[in-house]
Specification:
mainly alpha
Length: 302
């Protein structure tokens, strides 16, 4: 019986991986087929910069399955909610900031990295940003659902999303080329994130427990304006990216701590959990930054 369960889980995981791969690559294939090589090149350039931020959720994804499986086995739904909401908050804070930089400074980044001939890829990149963020959320959630023994639900939901993505690409790409594929992909990735959140809600898991969403959205809007304003002060593209990025780091992460979106104690816990040399470097950096971070601790907001 144990062997059958392992085989069933392995086949389920393999099927899900194939569907996941199809969702992430089908759009590129269809753009080349429906809009030609030039549009496919623009789309591939935009995808490269929209998906690099996934290193953050991938790092969290690796520990979620085993951690939540033990909690599910003990029927500790409250502990699952606490763990998932805390790690998802970290992922959302970091991923959203990087994607904000990419969206606001997209023109400078694309033309610097690929050359002026890829300037048309800028709006494609910006259309991909919401989807990339949604998929980062999905990468954190799907190991939790697998740990709950609902792999079949994941497969069905992913299969439907792949079909929707293909239909949207066939509709949008002939009209709008790479931009149409970006729109189709963002819609499909959003459907995945919403579907996973719904599956966990059915299990009474609160994935955004304690997250001050209104404050965070306001901070993103303010940071986006600050980045654009800082970048506009400099004409040289490389220096513009550097100035805009520096302004963004200062405004966003100051706001994150001042608004109570992230606590100093949580940063210390994260640093202590790092392996080997990274932990030693992290501890030294934290001790240097700790006095400044403590000054940013919110005194009025709860």
């Amino acid at each position: 019986m144990a062997t059958q369960n392992l085989l069933r889980f392995g086949l389920s995981a393999m099927t899900f991986s194939v569907l996941n791969m199809a969702l992430c690559s089908l759009d590129v294939i269809l753009v080349r087929h429906l809009a030609g090589g030039a549009q496919a090149g623009l789309y591939a350039a935009a995808v490269q910069w929209s998906q690099f931020v996934w290193f953050i959720p991938i790092a969290v994804e690796g520990v979620m399955l085993q951690s939540t499986a033990r909690l599910w086995a003990g029927q500790l739904v409250g502990d699952v909610s606490s763990l998932v909401s805390r790690l998802l908050r970290y992922v959302m804070l970091g991923t959203a900031f990087l994607l904000l930089i990419v969206a606001v400074l997209g023109h400078q980044i694309v033309t610097l990295y690929f050359g002026p001939q890829f300037a048309e890829a800028v709006w494609v990149l910006r259309l991909l940003v919401p989807g990339a963020f949604c998929y980062a959320i999905a990468r954190v959630l799907w190991p939790v659902i697998q740990g709950a023994g609902e792999g079949a639900h994941l497969i069905r939901m992913m299969g439907r999303t792949v079909a929707v993505d293909a239909a949207l690409c066939w509709t949008f790409v002939p009209r709008w080329g790479a931009a149409g594929a970006a729109l189709a992909t963002s819609v499909s990735f959003a459907l995945v994130a919403v579907g996973y959140a719904w599956l966990l809600r059915r299990r009474r898991v609160r994935i955004l427990e304690g997250f001050a969403m209104v404050r965070w959205v306001g901070l993103l809007l303010g940071t986006g304006g600050a980045i654009a304003g800082g970048a506009a002060l400099v004409d040289a593209p490389l220096l513009s990216v550097a100035v805009g990025g520096a302004v963004g780091v200062s405004v966003y992460w100051t706001g994150v701590f001042w608004l109570g979106l992230l606590k100093v104690e949580e940063v210390e816990q994260l640093v202590q959990s790092l392996p080997g040399v990274l932990r030693q470097v992290g501890v030294k950096a934290f001790h240097y930054l700790e006095p400044l971070l403590l000054k940013l601790r919110p005194t009025v907001l709860n």
